[in-house]
Design brief:
- Two copies of one chain form a homodimer.
- The first copy, chain A, has 420 residues and is of the alpha/beta class.
- Chain A is elongated.
- The first copy, chain A, has 15 helices and 17 strands.
- In chain A, a hairpin with an 8-residue loop joins strand 6 and strand 7.
- In chain A, helix 2 runs parallel beside helix 6, helix 3 crosses helix 4 and helix 10 runs parallel beside helix 15.
- The interface between A and B is large, with 69 and 69 residues.
C-alpha cells in the first residue's frame, strides 16, 4: 500500500514549528510495513491544498492528512477534502454531543464556530479525540483510504496509535497483505562508529533480514536492526536472534536497547550490586546528578550529589585542603580524587565520584584548555582518575563529562558484579 | 519570489530522522521575505525525485534541495537534477583539489567514489562546505534559482547562513524586491496565556505590522512579533517600538527576548546585585544547579548546589535536625526552609534556596501526592516558602520545580534591586 502524508499549516511552512507529525506517522506506518512515498507540507490555503490532495489521490492508495481541523476560518482541511471528493458535509450528532459535553465540563461557553467541527463528509467515520474539540475522520473513497487528523501532536499521536494503526492493521489483514516490520535499537558506548563497524563487519556485510544500520548519536553509537516478516512472533524472533549474535561480539559495549539511557544501565547495576553512590561535581554543574535522579526509585542508590562550584565549597564541604587547591589548581587529578574520596566519606557511600574541569568559554590557561576535565571514581578497594579533553560548547563539555562519568561507573560496576 | 523546499532521503521519509532542515531553511528565507509555498520529502529514488523536481520547476521561481549529495550509489540528487535540466556533469577542479586536501588532512585514503562529489552540472556555482566532502551547488536556469545543499544539518546550516542567504539577498536587491521580515520573541513568565492576552487585548486587536502571536511554550508564554518593511532599520524600529508598548503593560512579566532563558535573566540580576547563591535540592535532583551553571561565568554567583537526596545527607551535610524530619517528613515547608537556611549558612551565601518534593512515580502518600513540592528562599532580611502541586512525569515535576525556583529568584531579585 503506497502512502502519502500531507501536513497542513502555514506555521509549518514558515518554519515556526517542526514537522514531528510526519516523522511519527511514518514511523508508525513502517511498523505495519506501509511505505510512505511522499510527505508534503502545504499552508492554510484552499486551492493549494486541493491541488496537493488531488495529486496524492492519483499516486497513493492511502493518504493521511494532519492539521487544519480547528474551528476558525483559516482551518480548511475538512471543507477542502470534501470538496475535492464531491461529498457534502453533514452534522455528526455524536460529535455535536461530545462538543457540548466538552464545553460544559470545562465550564466555558461554546462558540457557534465550534459547531463546524461536528461537520463530517458524507460516509465518513469519526475518530475520537479525547484531548481536543476536533475529531479525526476516516473516508473510504474510490478504493482509497483517506484519514484526517488534528495537527497538535498531543491530540494526533494518541489517535494515531490507538485508533488509526489498529484500523489499518485490520484492513491489511482483510486484504492478506499485512507485513510486519519492527525495529530494535542496540545502544553502544565506549566504541566509535568505525571501530564498532570493524568488529561486526561480517554481520554488516551479510545483512539481509534484519537489516543493520549504525548511527552515531550524541556521544554514543546506535545500531538499528529492522526485520520484516508475516507475524509479530516471526519478526521478534528474527530481531532477538540477530541481537544475540551482535551481543556475542560487542559484549558489554552494548549497554541497553531502544529508549534505555546510559543512566538506566548504571542504575540497574547499582541496584543489582546494592551499592550506594555520592557525587562531587564541579564543571558538570549537577548534570550527572540530574541524570542519575531521572530514574524512578533512584533514592535507593543516590545519597547526595554536591556541586561544589567554588574553591571554598570544595574546602569547607568536602574537606579538601585549600593548600592543595592552591598548589595544583582546582582542575587537577589530585582535586578530582580528593572530591571523590571527600564526598564518599561525608555521605558514607560505597562509591564516590569527583568531576572537575573547565566548561568554558572562559577560565582557560595555556596549560589548561577549555574542555580539560578530570573524573575520579573511588571505592574501598578501587580507585581511578582519568583525564579528558572535551571540545565544543559549554553544554557539550557538561554533557560529555556526565556521559564519561556514567561510562566509568558502568565499567566499574560490571567488573565488580563479575567478582561478587 | 515563490520558493519550494525539497528534502531528499529515505531516512526522512521513513521517519527515522526529523526534517529540521526544511524548518530551518523556511525560517531563514522568511527573514528575507521569501515565502515557502510547498515542502516535499522524497526518498532516494531517481524517477520520483525527477517528478517532484519537475513539478517544482513549474510552480516556483526558487527551489532549494537538501540531501542526496553523498558519495555512494544511493545519492542521486546531483545526477537527477542535471538530468531534468538536461545539463552535463563536469568535473570541478576546485572541488577536486578540496577533496584531495580534505582526505590528506584527515589522514585517510580517498576512495574513487568520492570523486563523484566533484562533478557539477554545467554552469553551476560551487558553494563551499567546510564540514564535509559534498559541495553545495547553485544553478540559474530558465529564470529560476536552484540550490542543492548537503543533508547533514551541521554541514547544511552554516552553508545556508553564510553563503545562500547573502547570495539571495543580493539577487533580491538587484531585482528591487527585497522585503525585510524579522521576528522578535518576548518571553513571559508568571502569567498564563489567556491572562496575558487579556492584559494586552487592545494591542492584540489592533495588530497589523508587526503582527503579535502568543504561544504557550513549555512552562512559559512567548509573544512573537513579526514586522515587515523595506530595510533592516525600518523593521527593527517597528519591532522595538511595539515591544516597548507591550513592555509598558507587562512589565517584569517579560523576562527576556528571543533565545534568552529564564536562568540567564536570573544570572543577570545576580550579577547586577552582586549577590551569591547556594542551593539545596532534593526532588529536582540537581536540575536547578545544572540550569544556573549553564550560564558562562556562573561561578561569579554560584557557590554550591547540594543535592541532599537522602535524609542522612539532609541531616549530616545541611545540619537539619533528624527529629524535625521524622516529625514533619522530608517533604514539608519546615524542611524546605531548613534546607535553604542550612545551605546558606554552610556556604556563607547571600541567598539560600531549598527544594523538597515528590518527583514520582513512587513515594506518594494520601496526604502527600506525587508532584507536591515546597520551595524556600532565604536571605538575611527575607524569607519565603511556597507550596506547589505539579503534575506530569518525573521529568515534568523536576522541570517545573526548577522553573518555579528560578521564577521565585527572579521576583525576589527584581524587588531587591529596586531597593538597592
Amino acid at each position: 500500500m503506497r502512502c502519502e502524508i500531507i501536513s497542513v499549516g502555514t506555521e509549518l511552512l514558515m518554519g515556526q514549528i517542526t514537522n514531528t507529525n510526519a516523522r511519527d506517522i511514518a514511523r508508525e506506518l513502517l511498523s505495519l510495513g506501509i511505505g510512505v512515498y511522499y510527505q508534503t507540507v502545504v499552508g492554510d490555503n484552499g486551492p493549494r491544498l486541493a491541488a496537493v490532495f488531488g495529486q496524492a489521490l492519483k499516486r497513493a492508495e492511502f493518504i493521511i492528512l494532519t492539521g487544519g481541523l480547528g474551528p476558525t476560518d483559516d482551518d480548511l482541511t475538512r471543507e477542502t477534502i470534501a470538496g475535492v471528493l464531491e461529498l457534502p458535509l453533514e452534522k455528526s450528532s455524536i460529535w455535536e454531543e461530545k462538543l457540548k459535553e466538552f464545553f460544559s465540563r470545562s465550564k466555558r461557553p461554546m462558540a457557534e464556530i465550534n459547531m463546524k467541527q461536528a461537520m463530517i463528509p458524507r460516509g465518513g467515520t469519526i475518530l475520537l479525540n479525547d484531548r481536543g474539540t476536533a475529531p479525526g475522520i476516516m473516508l473510504e473513497q474510490q478504493g482509497k483510504i483517506i484519514i484526517l487528523l488534528p495537527g497538535p501532536p498531543r491530540e494526533m499521536l494518541p489517535m494515531l496509535k490507538t485508533q488509526v494503526i489498529p484500523l489499518l492493521r485490520e484492513k491489511l489483514l482483510e486484504k492478506g497483505s499485512l507485513a510486519v516490520l519492527r525495529s530494535k535499537v542496540l545502544r553502544v558506548i565506549g566504541l566509535g562508529e568505525s571501530a564498532m563497524a570493524e568488529m561486526i563487519r561480517p554481520l554488516l556485510e551479510e545483512q539481509t533480514n534484519p537489516t543493520i544500520a549504525p548511527l552515531a548519536k550524541g556521544w554514543e553509537v546506535h545500531l538499528r536492526l529492522t526485520a520484516r516478516g508475516n507475524s509479530e512472533e516471526e519478526v521478534e524472533e528474527l530481531l532477538a536472534s540477530k541481537a544475540g549474535e551482535i551481543r556475542k561480539v560487542l559484549g558489554y559495549y552494548i549497554y541497553g536497547e531502544d529508549e534505555e539511557e546510559l543512566e538506566l544501565a548504571v542504575a540497574r547495576l547499582l541496584w543489582q550490586s546494592g551499592k550506594t553512590i555520592a557525587l562531587a561535581e564541579s564543571c558538570s554543574g549537577g548534570l550527572l546528578c540530574h541524570r542519575l535522579t531521572n530514574i524512578p526509585d533512584s533514592s535507593r542508590y543516590m545519597l547526595a550529589g554536591l556541586v561544589t562550584y567554588s574553591n571554598e565549597a570544595k574546602a569547607n564541604i568536602l574537606g579538601i585542603d585549600p593548600a592543595l587547591i592552591a598548589r595544583v589548581g582546582a582542575v587537577s587529578p589530585e582535586v578530582a580524587e580528593a572530591m571523590a574520596s571527600g564526598v564518599r566519606r561525608l555521605c558514607r557511600a560505597d562509591i564516590g565520584v569527583g568531576i572537575t574541569g573547565i566548561a568554558g568559554p572562559g577560565g582557560a590557561t595555556p596549560q589548561k584548555p577549555v574542555g580539560l576535565t578530570y573524573i575520579a571514581l573511588q571505592t574501598d578497594d578501587f580507585n581511578i582518575c582519568r583525564r579528558y579533553e572535551f571540545w565544543g560548547s559549554r553544554l557539550d563539555v557538561k554533557e560529555r563529562a556526565s556521559q564519561s562519568a556514567l561510562y566509568m561507573l558502568y565499567r566499574y560496576l560490571i567488573e565488580k558484579l563479575k567478582k561478587m
